[in-house]
Amino acid sequence: MKFSGTFKLNDTTTEEVWLALSDPVMIENALPGCQFLVEVEDTDVDFDALREEHGDRDVEPTSDPETIAERAFEQGNHYAGVIGISIGPVNPTFETVVTIEERDQPYMEAGGEGSAGDSSFEMTAWMDLDATDDGVEVDWTAEAEVFGRIAQMGQRVINPAANQVVKRFFSSVQDEIREREIAEGGEVEQAESAESNDDDRGIVDRILGRSEGN
């Protein structure tokens, strides 16, 4: 199955959107049904242990670039989450592991898999940011193989559910950007002023996904 679309974020810039999407905590808060999203060492995950450790956590998003840099997504790293999704008459909760395959502003690619009882999926997703006159367009594509009970429902049921999740997610991203005053320039001003010395430039480069020599 293939899903794709474009979502428009108004009154913001690619740098601001990329900064927000670099923060796993912001993704956790914006993704519908997400109980937690945390970095793990490999793809063999003990979800019972993760639930015990992170199930009741309440971590606030931040506008501080140094904090985001410390916990930002990194290429090659793995992230585990538990996500509840409504698909037709069922409401599965997927245990999911995602690997960041490529991350270089304004492009990100991730691959992962998830399982929930008698259903599972494998997926690769791409995202690219494009500046417009009054905001940012996020072009996204996902290719997925779905197995089990959910697969039996077919694309006529799965596609609307997937598109609704994406729509709610990017709407929440827009709200997070505004609430954290990223769109007011505070985040960008901090990042720009940080470039006044080499140590702080490293913070900004890590957030933006830049590697040495680029």
From TrEMBL:
Instruction: Check the record and name the Gene3D superfamilies matching this protein.
Output: 3.30.530.20
Family matches, as Pfam families = COXG
The source's superkingdom equals Archaea
Which InterPro entries does the entry link to?
CO_DH_gsu, START-like_dom_sf
Amino acid composition bias (Basic and acidic residues), ranges on this chain: 199-214
Q: Segment Disordered: which positions?
A: 181-214
The Acidic residues compositionally biased stretches are 184-198
Name listed for the protein in its UniProt record: Carbon monoxide dehydrogenase subunit G
Q: Which organism is it from?
A: Halococcus salifodinae DSM 8989
